[in-house]
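Sequence in, structure out.
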Amino acid sequence: VQLQASGGGLVQAGGSLRPSCAASGFTFDDYAIGWYRQAPGKERELLASISSDGSTMYGDSVGGRFTISRDNAKNTLYLQMNNLGPEDTAVYYCAADRPTIATTSAQYYGQGTLVTVSS
């Protein structure tokens, strides 16, 4: 199983990023997929998840700024992040599980992609 996240980077406050996560080694369509993040000194936080039927869930910290989506034909997960602030600086991880993504853990994790938001 591989979950390869990319698309992080350095952005100014108020800007946008769209990290993606390419999955392989499992039946992507059957799994819920999600994004976690972990900032230095903080616990891992579930930001958003999308189930195999397309239902979405967002964490409280997202505040309507993030949109999760999946392309089953490409086995790829996306996270559109708008109006970013310094508090969004963290390593962002994609994860997979079924039937749902739990708040605290998932069956599979990918390596993270670093997002840094400058003020």
